[in-house]
Specification:
Low-confidence stretches: none
Mean pLDDT: 90
Number of helices: 0
CATH class: Mainly Beta
CATH topology: Rieske Iron-sulfur Protein
Shape: globular
Radius of gyration: 13 Å
Number of strands: 11
Strand content: over 45%
Length: 117
C-alpha cells in the first residue's frame, strides 16, 4: 500500500497560484530521501507539484521564500525569467525552453493534497 503524506488543504493554494511546501522525497536517482522545497500549483481542483528548482541554472524559482511570480498562467523563474506552465511544468520561454520542472506525484484525497510515495 502506498504511503501518503498530506502537504496542505486544497483551499490553501490560491486558484491560479502557487505555494511552497517542504517534503521528504526520493532524490533523482531514487536512492535516498531528501527534504526538498516543492511548488504546488492549482487550477480549479487540479493540483501539480514540482521541485522548486529551475532546470536552467539550478536556482530556486521563488523571488523570496515561498513567494512565486505567476503571470498569464505561467510560473516565472525569479533568477532568469523562464516561464513554466502551471499544469505541466514545461518551460515555454526563456533560457531553458523545452525543458521541464521535476514533477512530484500528488493526489487529492477529499480536500487534502497528498504526496504519493
Amino acid at each position: 500500500m502506498p504511503v501518503r503524506k498530506t502537504l496542505c488543504g486544497l483551499s490553501e493554494i490560491p486558484d491560479g497560484g502557487a505555494i511552497e511546501r517542504v517534503a521528504a522525497i526520493f532524490d533523482r536517482d531514487g536512492a535516498h530521501m531528501i527534504d526538498e522545497s516543492l511548488v504546488l500549483t492549482r487550477h480549479g481542483t487540479e493540483v501539480s507539484a514540482y521541485v522548486n528548482v529551475c532546470p536552467h541554472a539550478g536556482r530556486r524559482l521563488d523571488w523570496a521564500p515561498g513567494q512565486f511570480l505567476i503571470e498569464e498562467g505561467l510560473l516565472i523563474c525569479a533568477a532568469h525569467g523562464a516561464g513554466f506552465t502551471l499544469a505541466t511544468g514545461e518551460c515555454v520561454y526563456g533560457p531553458c525552453r523545452g525543458e521541464s520542472l521535476m514533477r512530484v506525484d500528488v493526489a487529492l484525497d477529499g480536500a487534502d493534497v497528498q504526496l504519493r510515495d
